[in-house]
Amino acid sequence: MAEREHKHVRVAVIGSGFGGLGAAVRLRRQGITDFVVLERADSVGGTWRDNSYPGCACDVPSHLYSFSFAPNPQWPRNFSGQPHIRAYLERVTDTFGLRPHLRFNSEVHSLRWNGEELHWEVETASGPLTADVVVSATGPLSDPKVPDIPGLDSFPGKVSHSARWDHDYDLRGKRVAMIGTGASAIQIVPAIQPDVERLTLFQRTPPWVLPRADRKISAAEKWLHTKLPVTRAARRGLLWGIRELQVSAFTKRPNELGPIEYLAKNHMKKAVKDPALRAALTPDYRIGCKRILLSNTYYPALAQPNVDVVAAGLKEVRGSTLVGSDGSEAEADAIVFGTGFHVTDMPIAQRVTGADGTTLAEEWKDGMESLRGATAAGFPNFLTIIGPNTGLGNSSMILMIEAQLNYLGDFMRQLDILGGKIALSARPSAVKEWNRKLQQRMERTVWNTGGCDSWYLDANGRNTTVWPGTTSEFKKVTRQVDLAEYEVLRPPRKPVTAPVAAPAEVAA
Fold first, then answer.
1. pLDDT tens digits, residue range 249-265?
2. How many C-alpha atoms does 12 have within 13 Å on its Cβ side?
3. Looking at the whole model, is its pTM more than 0.90?
């Protein structure tokens, strides 16, 4: 653990998930060792530490959902589960010598820019420090969102969120209500369905679900990937290339997604024989508008006799009775919310105060905006990993993280080249122009035209979450910092006070 008396650092990184650990590796590889990683929990892992619900796994192939600079030839499955991904991040931490930089139980309470000293004043649960540069890698899937349901406080049973699973509470033989039908819910439902007495799924909007091409990776494949790294690289390249070719359908020609809808409907038809249930589970929006989900077990679980699907959201709780927005009622002993996270209103933004004395949340009240997904106007030397409009609808976020690590690396190089005590602040005009072009491109994407209301959109209906292009394009536009897009800040000159002349001697 980093020494507690170390009060000033060159860089403070917030979070120890993929983004934070990746930033730490990049800093070390550039010879920067004067940094800390501030983590609110007591171990690394980020979302893969917090999400440990039954059935938790990744929906991106393992060989693509890992750092290019830290390949793992021993992935056990095509789509690895949470324990294996978390173990991978622990290995990355050890392999690259990151443990001396970690400060656990150090939740960041506030960040305030000091324009006189050109550094950030950071208040954490383990004490204060200052930093020349702050890298926020808290991630968009870190703070659970639970809807404000009337009567929820009076519910006598167990209430939990998928990202805060209580492993000490036994669901066996219980009447369980699952709220939501997102990526977590479709994994939880089949995992708990065989053990619960009754499972009621409150479905506000049905998802599109495709088959999951999962299998164990054979010992021969693991051996080959270990002994011949080129085979591992080829596998990763193929997985990446297929997804790059899919991007145009999402971003330019959503009508081309029709055949994929047919495949999804066929997938449902094989498992769900009841026409009424199939009708309730069939989306009325274009596939891809919401996140496409992958599962071979979700539909079979919903067809079981101990499962009820309420084609409506949860409206009210009356004691142990749950009332849907369609008026239906269900009794429950436990409620599990799979209702997502604060994505377009990230809580960290409320804790960051910039050069003008306003918080990042206040600056983003009309929608998140940043330059190249990394820097916001008025917040010098503050970078975000997985910032606004860096999300993906069909590929691995690790690719986007690595692109942003390239940008971070060049940002630090530019500071060194300029020399001295210095800061870079994104020009408002550059931020506006970047986002004007970005939103213009967004207009014809499936996320904006597909006819759904997704978590990609903010309260104003703007898509401030997803990147409307390929990962290779994003890598290109974040390869280096364009200093023309930044204002170079130096410490204010202190007024020079003229020396006071000594009084003349008085003649005798």
1. 999 999 999 999 999 99
2. 28
3. yes
